[in-house]
């Protein structure tokens, strides 16, 4: 593991991987973070020192206030709540907290599994009642619906005018799926992803990870 800086947040990271989503989230926060690079090709994720961090041998992980958190959506939820000045969360007690959490966890719990089912179909296909999510097209219909207000007008983000951690997680899933041709280029979703890509924090995160991939 390669250490780069010192900060209150320790970020275990590898490129390319899902931890790039957390990199974007950290850039949105604007807080300093300590990067520990994990070389997946060299198998560092399976080394005892990293298995002590995450027994699954996966990235990302963060260490904050002495506790380790893994899983992209959980990390982004934690960071959004711990740093409220960034306004990336909907606070407890707000009626929109529930919808916000729904969208925060929608990609890993529904879109990504459905996307993998489309790419690697099972025969026979399991019923939605057994696996807990619909087919990919049905899920994308739900996202498109969420990006419209009650009058059918386009919303900037999933929670309306407020950009949140839900856009980081679910937006990243849509962006990744489109990049690899696993999610169709629906105009409303393309426009949403383009709005996310225009954010300065995403551009910073992408530039930093591009430099890592060169090395």
What does the model show?
There is one protein chain. The protein has 215 residues and is of the alpha+beta class. It folds into two domains: 2-88, Glutaredoxin, CATH 3.40.30; 97-200, Glutathione S-transferase Yfyf (Class Pi), Chain A, domain 2 (Up-down Bundle), CATH 1.20.1050.10. It contains ten helices and five strands. The protein has helices at residues 19-29, 48-51, 72-82, 97-104, 106-119, 128-131, 136-146, 165-179, 187-197, 200-214; strands at 2-3, 9-13, 33-37, 61-64, 67-70. Strands 1-3-2-4-5 form a five-stranded mixed sheet, covered by helices on one side. A hairpin with a 2-residue loop joins strand 4 and strand 5. Helix 1 (19-29) packs across helix 10, helix 3 runs antiparallel to helix 8 (165-179) and helix 8 (165-179) crosses helix 9 (187-197). Mean pLDDT is 95; it is low at 1-5.
The separation of the N and C termini measures: 15 Å
Top-tier CATH class of the largest domain: Mainly Alpha
**Which H/E pattern describes the elements?**
EEHEHEEHHHHHHHH
Do you know the CATH architecture of the largest domain? Up-down Bundle
Count of domain modules: 2
Characterize the overall form: globular
Please estimate the helix content: 40-55%
Tell me the radius of gyration: 18 Å
- Quick check: average pLDDT? 95
Number of strands: 5
